[in-house]
Amino acid sequence: GENVEQHPSTLSVQEGDSAVIKCTYSDSASNYFPWYKQELGKRPQLIIDIRSNVGEKKDQRIAVTLNKTAKHFSLHITETQPEDSAVYFCAASRRYGGSQGNLIFGKGTKLSVKP
Amino acid sequence: GAVVSQHPSRVICKSGTSVKIECRSLDFQATTMFWYRQFPKQSLMLMATSNEGSKATYEQGVEKDKFLINHASLTLSTLTVTSAHPEDSSFYICSARREAGNTGELFFGEGSRLTVL
Description:
The complex is a heterodimer.
Chain A: E1 4-7, E2 10-14, E3 19-25, E4 32-38, E5 45-51, E6 56-59, E7 62-67, E8 72-77, E9 86-96, E10 99-105, E11 109-114
Parallel strand pairs in A: 2-11
Antiparallel strand pairs in A: 1-3, 3-8, 4-5, 4-9, 6-7, 7-8, 9-10, 9-11
Chain B: E1 4-7, E2 10-13, E3 19-25, E4 32-38, E5 44-51, E6 57-58, E7 67-73, E8 76-81, E9 90-97, E10 106-108, E11 112-116
Parallel strand pairs in B: 2-11
Antiparallel strand pairs in B: 1-3, 3-8, 4-5, 4-9, 5-6, 7-8, 9-10, 9-11
């Protein structure tokens, strides 16, 4: 089955700096890679996602890149702000019968943005 | 975005009792819902995939007789923790995919924190 590795487990940056979180996956059949942000005690919220037919996607200060050959994808946050502080999870989906399957999550990265 | 509601948000029970957690998709139909378990400061661990009108698919290592899942309608899936023990204490989160458009995005419930005394 799918296995998703995420690094680093903790990341501390100064406000305004960039933050990069990296994930690798094992199942070459995975074709959907979302990133979720989870604040303490709250539900995960989707912040950006990418499909395997795209190499990069950007949404304001957030971008995700995907390297299918190497089976890794990364989250880039630029101009970080204190409100970006949270735990970020990457995930990959397996396919069942051609439709999107369930998500397998990485272990998470706790991002702290210092004012 | 789509709304998934989970109830109860917190539950405390005595060891040996059973607890039911509900997951509802409020504004869309979900043929598939997923149940995750999250320990403090850890990731979401997929427990099972709930399919409307059929048996749930459990991940390896998850006891199906311990964690009963019922997906009786397109908007409701329930997780029942049977004969709960302190080690079952955890944060349980459900998610559902809105099938229309097949965007793939999962919407999560608020989570249910179970404490077994």
